[in-house]
Automatic annotation (TrEMBL):
Its cofactor is heme. Residues 1-22 form the signal peptide. It comes from Chanos chanos (Milkfish). The keyword Phosphoprotein does not apply. Belongs to the cytochrome P450 family. The gene is cyp39a1. InterPro entries: CYP450_sterol_14alpha_dmase (IPR050529), Cyt_P450 (IPR001128), Cyt_P450_E_grp-IV (IPR002403), Cyt_P450_sf (IPR036396). This is 24-hydroxycholesterol 7-alpha-hydroxylase. The keyword Ligase does not apply. It comes from the Eukaryota. Coiled coil: none annotated. One of its GO terms (biological process) is bile acid biosynthetic process.
Amino acid sequence: MDWITLILSVIVVVISFHLIFAENNPYAPPCIRGWIPWFGAAFEFGKAPLYFIAQARAKYGPVFTVYAAGKRLTFVTLHEDFRTFFMSKDVDFEQAVQEPVYNTASISKGSFYKFHPACNALIKGRLTPGNTALLVSDLCEEFNQHLELLGDRGSQQLNELVRSVMYPAVISNLLGKCNAPGTPLSRQEFKKKFTIYDEGFEYGSQLPDIFLKEWASSKQWLLSLLVNMVNKAEENTYNESGSKTLLQHLVTTITDKFLPNYGLLMLWASLANAIPITFWALAFILSNPTIYETAMGQITSALKDKDKQKTHLSLDNLQQMPYVKWCIMEAIRLRAPGAVTRRVVRPLRLQNYIIPPGDMLMMSPYWAHRNTKYFPEPEEFKPERWEKADLVKNVFLDGFVAFGGGKNQCPGRWYAIMELHMFVALILYKYEFTLLDPVPNPSPLHLVGTQQPEGPCSVQYRHR
């Protein structure tokens, strides 16, 4: 038996080396293979994937492949190829994300392929600019309520402050007030569990639960929470205001046992990127006196002498603060996702290469937004660059790809922009802030979603 095991091991190693070190297809992009069978360049890539992408692009050119953990990741970095990435029929979004969806939300392959198109259409339809406007009043009320819980003065990490207000407010607005954590203890518990789940989401999408016990425990806690939320949504056709929440619409869309699991995905999508982008927008504004003064000028002019405790903010008020919206868009530009992906399903021609089926096609909005052709001084926070965009008509700047493209463009983008715009305006109108730390660098460790801060960023605040 020992000899059989040894022989089989040798065969596996030989085959692995042949697959990894075999000559490249002459039409394939340059490939970074590493030297360890199966793992390939996984260790080097995993140390700081954001930096790895930039270094590989400089060394190998605009299209290159990274062999890592048994997968071929082919990166495209030229804007002229992005339309192919988003629109080609030779690539597929659902096949690219199905396995991560299973790992992070325990949704079966069959269920995902059956219901994902309907879920995407549901969210896109319920969160159009017109429908988003109907959520403004209730969201403003929720933000006011939770901002007042900060008290007259205090100090804490800016990221934690944003989470403590936005988590319960957005849950109430999209999933129903009855589902929002209503006590200090429940809010604290939710923040702890969701933060663990969110910060470990990228690792959880690739590794079995057994290697991530604390993360897996938080996932199960959140799934149990969503079971309760779904039960309430099924019992109550309409929410307190007489309209349907996004969760109540989801209940009528998903007809299998994975309904709570889809609810978890929707919860994550509604919170995971909005909170860090809000942090970055506030940190950038507070760290630049000129930008802060300009933003406060518009906020004060639009809200005039409104009550500082129960500040009613309408869509018309937001439209009177275009500079604040520019700040939001500039924060999104600077902290866009590290990578988005599609699976190649048929041979795909890019530049002078042919990408084989099975490759994961990757594109980095983070690095795309540092192209000086589209964004001069790309590392600078310059809200005024957004004056050239027609944001009133929901038209972004050329070269901006933070929300993706094609039929799988972020379905909640209009809601996200509105909620960030509102939150930043409200909190700056109600509170004075002092930054106690310099603005931290973004962490280079993750590719999924918005970058988290690499270091602390404490603030002192005082109610106006």
